[in-house]
Amino acid sequence: MRPHAKDISDEEFTAFQNGSQRIFRKIFDTYQNTLLRYAYSVCGKEDIASDAVQESFVQLYQCRSTVDGPSGIYPLLFVMTKRYLLRVFRRSVVEAKFRDELSNSWDERCTATTDELDVNDLRSLLSELVEQLPDKQKKIFQLNKFAGYSYEEISELTGTSKNTVKNQLISASRKIRLSLHKLYAFIFLIYFFHQ
């Protein structure tokens, strides 16, 4: 996420917090296209990207009194959009799995075994994707995601700055997410065309 300059004055920000429709529209016009491009790059679907951005602006308006300052508006919108897309992705994975289970003719006694196999397959896939990361990213990702270390702890262990740790973790997560997204899209196509 690239930093944004303060696009509204302190007086406009106060008016925004007090519910000014004019200032809210200015904020909307300032950030809408940037957020739409980001959301579309993540999900590849215009309707989902549009819904994500719209929902983020609704949430921003509802929690406007808690925003720290003018420079906090874009980061908050970005995080809200990102969380919305993550919820959509998780829901689509669950729905796809549910549809697969419905079409499956196995009896319920096999469910525990198939769930365990699915979890093991996912762990194995994740391990393979982590192994493909550059050494530094792999180490930071494993320390944070698997061992539960904080940015500060990883910074001390690796001798790198906290910002470097954060950037490496973001980059590693993005690579893994993109690989998983491509894989799920591929699996969906195979499933769809073999029905």
Automatic annotation (TrEMBL):
Residues 125-169 form the RNA polymerase sigma factor 70 region 4 type domain. GO terms for biological process: DNA-templated transcription initiation. Keywords: Sigma factor, Transcription, Transcription regulation. GO terms for molecular function: DNA binding; sigma factor activity. Residues 28-91 form the RNA polymerase sigma-70 region domain. The keyword Transcription regulation applies. It comes from the Bacteria. PANTHER family: RNA POLYMERASE ECF-TYPE SIGMA FACTO (PTHR43133), RNA POLYMERASE SIGMA-70 FACTOR ECF SUBFAMILY (PTHR43133:SF46). Belongs to the sigma-70 factor family. ECF subfamily. This is Sigma-70 family RNA polymerase sigma factor. It comes from Sphingobacterium phlebotomi.
